[in-house]
Amino acid sequence: MLDNLEQQPADALLALIKLHNADPRADKIDLGVGVYRTGQGETPVFGAIKAAEKKLVETQDSKAYLGPEGDMGFVEALMPYVFGKDAPSMGGRIEGMQTPGGTGSLRLAFAMAKRAGIRCMWMGNPTWPNHPQICKDLGIEMKTFSHATPDGVADMDGIRGAIAEAEPGDAILLHGCCHNPTGIDYSSAQWDEIAPLLAEAKLLPIIDLAYQGLGHGMEEDAYGVRRVAVSVPELLVTQSCDKNFGLYRDRTGALYVMTAEPDQLPAVMSNAHALARANWSQPPDHGAAAVRLVLEDEKLTAQWLDELDQMRERMRQVRAKLGAAGKTGGVDLTPLGGQNGLFSIIPFTPEQVQAMREKHGIYFAGSGRINVAGLTAGNIDQFIEAVADVTG
Ligand code: LMR
């Protein structure tokens, strides 16, 4: 039977890690998968997480199962960062659960939407390739709309058109901040316009908040989620601590569910728990326990927010330098200066992507998506010169 299975292509983003590792050139540059890097090109464990991990080793007295919802102390401690400090549960209409990373949360959100009977899932194009991949695996029909215009801003006509065409009960996937792969986010004014449209069209919004804190700050990056939450009756938010707590391989995420009435939550969450049980039974504990210990301790929370500020500040500096390069060969890097988070797209042709790899040892996704955190004071000029060379 196993012989019936056909060879599948390696995941294009994850394959970049191996391609880069196999390149013997000392001056190679990795702008591939989305991990933050310091000015020295490293991805260290956050100091606040290290301290929390020490505490965890000293105080954790059992590793017995917690249940499919995971560490609820973690889920509740994170909730005010997502929905705001004043009424983080919107009068008892929001409940969450821990998931294995942002992907686990998306998997649950999409599977719940399917169980609830959505007809199709709308998503912007481009989007993170794993979004359509999860939908396809679940057999959910997808429809797309244009996310950004060629001059590097959000395509409001694209989303307006999609919302107008969608039918009540369709789901729509939006990126809360730091859009992956374009770095092009909706402004506050644009969220103000989008949120009531979603409500009027009776759509189920699913907001992917995998990069909260990497754009303008934890509060600022939650604007879209919070604006939509006060406008619509039902909402799913997929959260990840993989980037903003640097926990990548510890797979630390959460799913938050908002229902129209508080008494609908138990039935809805029972579906989320049952789906988790059927997929991974229970999420891995370590990362969530460490985040909980950070968030329960004022000093560690301040340390974490400070570390996050430093990350964001460095990415702003890299972006400022890229933006200042302006017209470079055949492309214009100016818009990258004002975009958010780890990613931006440079409109390379497939041949130019190949030339960047082969001639210059610079690795990034075939879509032209670069992870700006891979650029440092030591390699950014080399990158800009290579872009001029292959596109000129
Ligand atoms: C990315 O887009 O590079 C990250 O979200 C990591 C991943 O899992 O793809």
Descriptive report:
The protein is of the alpha/beta class and 392 residues long. It has 2 domains: 11-45 and 313-391, Aspartate Aminotransferase, domain 1 (Alpha-Beta Complex); 65-296, Type I PLP-dependent aspartate aminotransferase-like (Major domain) (Aspartate Aminotransferase, domain 2, 3-Layer(aba) Sandwich), CATH 3.40.640.10. The protein is built from 13 helices and 13 strands. The strands form 4 sheets. Strands 2-8-7-6-5-3-4 form a 7-stranded mixed sheet, with helices on both faces. A two-stranded parallel sheet has the order 1-12. α2 (47-59) packs antiparallel against α11 (298-325) and α7 runs parallel beside α8 (223-229). The longest helix has 28 residues, at 298-325. The chain is globular and about 60 Å long. (2S)-2-hydroxybutanedioic acid binds next to loops.
**Topology as H/E string?**
HEHHEHEHEHEHEHEEHHHEEEHEEH
Rounded Rg: 21 Å
Tell me the strand percentage band.
5-15%
Which CATH architecture of the largest domain is right? 3-Layer(aba) Sandwich
Low-confidence stretches: none
Largest sheet: 7 strands, mixed
Query: For the terminal residues, how far apart are their CA atoms?
Result: 52 Å
Number of domains: 2
Bound molecules: (2S)-2-hydroxybutanedioic acid
Q: CATH top level of the largest domain?
A: Alpha Beta
Tell me the number of helical segments per DSSP (H or I, 4 or more residues long): 13
Give the number of DSSP strands. 13
Strand order of the largest sheet: 2-8-7-6-5-3-4
CATH fold-level topology of the largest domain: Aspartate Aminotransferase, domain 2
Class based on secondary structure composition and strand pairing: alpha/beta
Mean pLDDT across all amino acids = 97
* CATH H-level superfamily title of the largest domain: Type I PLP-dependent aspartate aminotransferase-like (Major domain)
Percentage of residues in helical conformation:
40-55%
The outline comes out as globular
